[in-house]
Amino acid sequence: MSAETPSTVHPTHRRAPASAKSEQRIRDLLRVGREVFAEKGYERATTTEIAQRLGVSEATVFTYFHGKRALCVAVISDWYDEIIATMQDGLPREQPIRAQLHYLVQTHLRVFLVQGTGLCALVLSEGRSKGQALGESFLPLQRRYTAPLMDLLARGQASGEIRRDVSLRLLRSVVLGPMEHLLWEVVAQDKPTDIEAVSADLVALLWSALQGTGGPASRG
Amino acid sequence: MSAETPSTVHPTHRRAPASAKSEQRIRDLLRVGREVFAEKGYERATTTEIAQRLGVSEATVFTYFHGKRALCVAVISDWYDEIIATMQDGLPREQPIRAQLHYLVQTHLRVFLVQGTGLCALVLSEGRSKGQALGESFLPLQRRYTAPLMDLLARGQASGEIRRDVSLRLLRSVVLGPMEHLLWEVVAQDKPTDIEAVSADLVALLWSALQGTGGPASRG
Amino acid sequence: MSAETPSTVHPTHRRAPASAKSEQRIRDLLRVGREVFAEKGYERATTTEIAQRLGVSEATVFTYFHGKRALCVAVISDWYDEIIATMQDGLPREQPIRAQLHYLVQTHLRVFLVQGTGLCALVLSEGRSKGQALGESFLPLQRRYTAPLMDLLARGQASGEIRRDVSLRLLRSVVLGPMEHLLWEVVAQDKPTDIEAVSADLVALLWSALQGTGGPASRG
Amino acid sequence: MSAETPSTVHPTHRRAPASAKSEQRIRDLLRVGREVFAEKGYERATTTEIAQRLGVSEATVFTYFHGKRALCVAVISDWYDEIIATMQDGLPREQPIRAQLHYLVQTHLRVFLVQGTGLCALVLSEGRSKGQALGESFLPLQRRYTAPLMDLLARGQASGEIRRDVSLRLLRSVVLGPMEHLLWEVVAQDKPTDIEAVSADLVALLWSALQGTGGPASRG
DNA sequence: CATGAATGAGACTTCATTCAT
DNA sequence: AATGAATGAAGTCTCATTCAT
Question: Which range scores top for mean pLDDT: B103-107, C108-112, C203-207, D25-29?
């Protein structure tokens, strides 16, 4: 929930409820909202359901958030905060780059599979700003989320463990992309998946790619 | 399905017009429907808007398709058929595996950037939908779409050009994942992108991964 | 179908189709219309379905009838003609009143059970003129239908076989009412029913009532 | 059900308001709904009209009832409850069977003439509806409604005042049938009717039938 | 004559949101 | 602060009916 980053969580209030009870309400709404948005997606989630699950009236939701959109943005921010914290806290910075990569991959898969990937879908599909619903708000979060990985890749390049002939941006896609793809597959087909094994295999593949043992990148 | 496979596209509606002007209408609806669904996603797309853009009454939409869902399924089928045809027709089967991979990667990126990735999002986010909307219909299409790639990977493994110690499923994610990730990025940020260059770099990275020059896959 | 009563069947045409083919079309529409209206009731029946079952276009229905309402009126008229003919043709006028009553009861039950009572429901529920749908047209038909019964009752009263202290109108309700009630029951609950047995019992009951062996009618 | 049995009437809708103004609204909706459904029948009645007559927005209707069907079912339940209560409260159980029958007949005719038989038509014609609309829900109500009569007939048979050679089911039709038939007639033709006189005559007729003074029932 | 095609009118329903209490 | 109640706006879908061909 990150009471530490109120700037992200609170900016959508009508008035300024600051009491303990208020903060609890907000936390509850974020929690339940996360569940519902994750399960249903933005459009199919309803304020009614969120209120019902929490056992409060629908109007209460609007007492604390400007509306559905604002609640959803807050939910996602809150969730990102949580993920980012998890990522950063456990990263074994003293170990080799490859081990750190392994940690990031494994944690990413774990987090999303546990959360149900619903939020992932939410961000991915509602993140498109065109539809005017959510939009913009997410880029900074995405950036913060990928920061540890970018940093890792940069350090790897600096130390020579990772090839330097390819842009960081592309490297990042090569790491994050397969993970998301795997997750979609899991969600779509409900296949049980051994996270540890898949992580290990995936890291091995990625490591080959990142090392660039296949010769110079460009024009093959 | 394209105009040649009316069984999927043509309505099983009350009246099932089947020729000449009819087929044109269906093509129009598929075209406009593709645009709107791509821009808005399933929920935010409206039959009203589709009808308006085409300059017909809303009832006309329902003369040709059972409803919004059916139209959307038809739109996606139609679009998949198009992509699949493109993929298969140009694949240089006589060239080395790596060159074929390059073709697939490049074509994928091109097609989706031109089409605007909206449909990609549509399939990805609405495709899960145990909830209600689309679902099921897409797995076979997904399978047909990835068939050429899977075939290529299998042939690569058979010829020894691609490592055999990792499952095809994982290899597929390693190839498709980065592409989708790149596309999301491009769409979200509207960055202009040099498809040729990115394709080349990406293939280089992937090729390293697929060759497996980094040592045995498991437990690294 | 009664080609003999064109005034009832034909008055709803757009133009005046008089050819053999036209008459066949009209007969077909009346037949299929009867089926559909009987199965679905007026509101839930659709011109689409009628056309489809006949294998013609929807517009054809409107070539021969001013519209749904006109078709329905024609269907009911046509059906009444048929029933009335059946009733009158078989009535054993030379036999005792009670035997004739038995014939009428048995025939009524048979006809409606075979036809499915759907049309009965149609007349009963759509006959209410308030709803502006069908209305008025039916009273004359009802009168023609009940004519044989009324005649029978009058003859019974004249001959002294039926009590004279109660109005014909009430006697009629006492005869027709139970039959309709039984039919509704059968339709509602799908109970198989032995028409012969029920007819016999019902006639026995009715005969008691009509004879008036219970003493003077009024004020009991 | 009347206001005392909210489980049937109160909505299981998103929001389930349950007191004070709420209950009044529900009563209002049941009242207006009864009017409109009675006048128009299920299909021709519209939620729009119900809302308008009550001077509320259409959405309000759906705040209190799941939908048109649910409202209609509630309307009918409510109405049945009312009728049944009326029937049972006044029945002179200490008087002879014939007098009790007279009461039931008279009350039935009165109630339906006052209510306008529209609901009778509604139940009769929409009640069949395997097709789609209402259905099922009504059989229990029908049963409760006819219970007093069935009980009366059974007691009459037990005491020897009513013939035993005919099934209760048939006897019931002989009593209820003529009443419904009379009512249809009255409604269709708008004839003013002297309920007291008709009741008396009808009971006299029915009593003859029920006593069975005409000889053994079967095979006449 | 038959029909393919199109549609206007209107139905039911959902939902985020507001406001007086 | 919380909510009961109400609703405007919008959406999907149905169907009888028309008209040019």
Answer: D25-29
Please list the rounded mean pLDDT of every run of 10 residues in chain B (220 residues).
40 57 94 92 94 97 96 91 88 94 90 71 65 64 86 95 91 88 72 82 90 56
- Which residues 34-73 of chain A have a CB within 8 Å of chain D? 48, 52, 58
Candidates A42, A184, A32; CA nearest to A112 is A184
Q: Say if D143 is an interface residue toward chain C (CB within 8 Å).
A: no
Vertex D76: Cα angle to D74 and D77 (nearest 5)? 65
Looking at the structure, tell me whether residues C109 and C176 fall in a common domain. yes
Confidence of residue A213 (pLDDT cuts 50, 70, 90): low
CB B106 within 8 A of CB B199: yes
Q: Are residues D194 and D150 in the same domain?
A: yes
| CATH code of the domain covering residue B204 | 1.10.357.10
C124 with C147, same domain: the answer is yes
Amino acid found at D69: R
Burial of C183 (0-12, 13-18, 19+ CB in 10 A): buried
Q: How far is the CA of A20 from the C1' of E7 (A)?
A: 59
Residues 50-69 of C near strand F (Cβ < 7 Å)? 58-59, 61-62, 67-69
A132 touches strand F (CB under 7 A): no
DSSP secondary structure string for all residues of D137-174: THHHHHHHHHHHHHHHHHHHHHHTSS-SSS-HHHHHHH
Residues A195, A106 contacting (CB under 8 angstroms):
yes
**Is the separation of the CB atoms in D146 and D168 below 8 Å?**
no
Inter-CA distances, C132 with C30, C128, D34, D39, D127, Å:
22, 8, 19, 10, 21
Question: Measured between alpha carbons, how far is A3 from A23 in angstroms, rounded to an integer?
Answer: 9
Which residues from the 86-105 window of protein chain B have CB within 7 angstroms of nucleic acid chain E? none
- Segment A84-111 mean pLDDT: 91
Q: What pLDDT is recorded for position A2? A: 41
**Cβ contact (<8 Å) for A205 and B39?**
no
Tokens 């006309």 locate to B60
On whether residue A83 sits in a domain, the answer given is no
Tell me the pLDDT tens digit for each residue of D34-50.
999 988 888 999 999 99
pTM over 0.70: yes
| Phi (first) and psi of residue D92, to 5 degrees | -80, 85
Q: How many domains does chain A have?
A: 2
Residues 6+ apart with CB under 8 A from A176: A108, A146, A149, B177, B181
Domain boundary among A48, A76, A104: A76
In which band, very low, low, confident or very high, does the pLDDT at C133 lie, cut at 50, 70 and 90?
low
Domain ranges, residue A203: 91-215
The 10s digit of each residue's pLDDT in A116-172 is 666 777 776 666 555 455 666 677 777 888 889 999 999 999 999 999 999 998 899
D51 and D100 inside one domain: no
* Cβ contact A184:B177 at 8 Å: no
Q: Are C210 and C174 in contact (CB under 8 A)?
A: yes
Q: Are residues A102 and A208 in the same domain?
A: yes
A/B touch flag: 3 or more CB pairs below 8 Å: yes
CA dist., res. D45 & res. D37, Å (int): 6
Q: Work out whether the CA dihedral C32, C36, C38, C39 comes out positive or negative.
A: positive
In this predicted model, what pLDDT tens digit does every residue of A56-77 receive, in sequence order? 999 999 999 999 999 999 998 8
- E-strand ranges in chain A read none
In whole angstroms, F12 C1' to B46 CA is 9
